[in-house]
Amino acid sequence: MRNKPRTLELFYGSFTPPEMSNARCQAYNDGTLERPIETLEHACRDTADQNRDVPIGKAVVHWFKTDLRLHDNRSLQKAQELARDNNVPLIGLYILSPEDFTAHCVSPARVDFILRTLQRLQRDLGELDIPLYMEMQEKRKAIPNRVVALCQTWEAHHLFGNIEYEVDELRRDAKLVRLCSGKGIAFNLSHDTCVVPPWLVELAAGAANPDYLEASEEPGSNPRDTRQSFADLFDCKVPTPPGNKTLTEEAKKKFEKLYPAGEHEGLQRLENFLEEKGKQYEKNRNLTSGDGTSVLSPYLAAGSLSARTAVITAKQANKNCLDRNDSSLATWISEVAWRDFYKHVLAHWPFICMNKCFKPEHTNIEWEYDEAKFEAWCEGKTGFPIVDAAMRQLRGSAWMHNRSRMVVSSFLSKDLLIDWRRGERYFMENLIDGDFASNHGGWGFGSNERFDPEEEYIRHWVPELRDIKGKAIHDPYERGAGAQAEKKGYPRPIVEHGASRERALAQFKKALQS
Predict the structure, then answer these.
(1) Pick from 37, 55, 155, 372: most CB atoms within 10 A?
(2) Where are the alpha helices (H) located in 286-435, listed in sequence order?
(3) Residue 337, annotated as binding a ligand
(4) Does the annotation flag 281 for ligand binding?
(5) Does the annotation place 220 within a ligand binding site?
(6) 466, 379 in Cβ contact below 8 A?
(7) Is 335 marked as binding a ligand?
């Protein structure tokens, strides 16, 4: 059970290379190895002079990635301005690759959410006579050449897109910048995912630099003849999900009701949160049982809501608060800043995309690989009620309260001493808001019953314990309710908490010393 798997395909699949050595991680840290974001920056600088001289073509293209919205989209605004100033059409492009979904362990729930978002985006663009061309590209390595071919077909000499900070995407775009330049196409990239771009590490910089908190305008309408000149693009169908990323019809209906897609829904949820739950966020944000969080993460992850818009709107709402001592919205803004921080970490320490944690030496830990315990964790049958409630919430709603994520990740790695990468993958494969940077950054925290003081969370998700009174529900077998729990079929704890924690601490200490 303690033996380490030969490869990490168990965790991440066939697109994952062998685990990177700690020495190679250090080479990124000391600048010996060029970071992928630096490779992209060099490609942009090397082609800048040539790109300035590229003449306008018959269209301008914006490549949608994880920015599926019209409102406050940096790259889209720049593309539309160039098209408008030269009286040529703007074309939207989206390419779906099953290999990308597999490589990033994207959940079926999130794939479904993305495709539903594309339907709304296509409709919104169509009202402006802007076509959205979508296609499936089986091989992810073929995407750069395909993008160039499409631009050539449409006689578009300018391509725009927002930067994604995962390693594969940075390398893809660096290749595409040079490929486009060689074909007479200018590929213009923008920082849009974060409020403050990577390298500008002062996350409070938004207050000092108002440009960071300036929303981009939505695009205007295309020329009237666009529907004639690019008629075939308006009939484009949203791609179907790959077979291994397809939900059942029952699940589709459930998630469509829980998480309606599109930027209009995201913006409305933001407004509703700030007007209602946001005022009590400081007080209620850690309570797993209540409905005190915004549940905006699916919209932020798909890019149907920009983090910048979230901060701008929250800051304005905070100014309008009658109670000047209320820090709830400021606290919520700080949570959005954490999202930025994890993206910055991704760009600065690229090895976290390569099976390593922020402190590479932690991968020296002698993990255990007990399949029975891992399955119990996945199914919410560990005998630890708060852990089980959280894991059942994930299975039932494809979402989990942030404090619950901390509880279950800590339990997996510190109580069960199971490799955190197994849990990280399981999260990505099941969360509707699975964002690699935030998911990776969120692993490794601890928690306890103070996040469910009224036991509502456990009673909702663990029905076997619903009739147990008081605090005994948190640990029925140690607090006198074991017979009642056993009668209802609730499992006994699969590990002894104190001993497990001591064993984990010893292993962590041993790994760091080595």
Answers:
(1) 37
(2) 297-302, 307-319, 328-348, 371-379, 385-397, 402-410, 420-430
(3) yes
(4) yes
(5) no
(6) no
(7) yes
Is 54 annotated to bind a ligand? Reply is no
State mean pLDDT over 346-370.
Answer: 81
- SS3 per-residue string spanning 278-311: HHHHHHHCCCCCCCCCCCCHHHHHHCCCCHHHHH
Comparing C-alpha atoms, which of 463, 314, 468, 447 is closest to residue 387? 447
* 490 marked ligand binding residue: no
Which one is predicted more confidently, 213 or 266?
A: 266
433 is in an annotated binding site: yes
Is 63 annotated among the ligand-binding residues?
no
Tell me whether residue 338 is annotated as binding.
yes
Tell me the whole-structure pTM to 2 decimals.
0.91
pLDDT digits (tens, 9 = 90+) for 393-447: 999 999 998 888 988 998 998 899 998 889 999 999 999 999 888 887 776 333 3
342 labelled as ligand-binding?
Answer: yes
Residue 452 assigned ligand-binding role = no
To 10 degrees, what angle do helices 385-397 and 371-379 make? 70
Q: What is the mean pLDDT of residues 35-40?
A: 94
Say whether pLDDT at 18 is over 70: no
Does 294 carry a binding-site annotation? yes
Amino acid of residue 280: Q
Query: Does 340 belong to an annotated binding site?
Result: yes
pLDDT over 60 at 460, yes or no? yes
Instruction: State the pLDDT at residue 106.
Output: 95
Q: From CA 210, how far away is CA 198, in angstroms rounded?
A: 17
User: In order of start, what are the domains of the chain with their CATH numbers?
Assistant: 9-13+357-513 (1.10.579.10), 30-235 (3.40.50.620), 245-350 (1.25.40.80)
Q: Tell me the β-bridge partners of 133.
A: 93
Is 297 part of any known ligand binding site?
Answer: yes
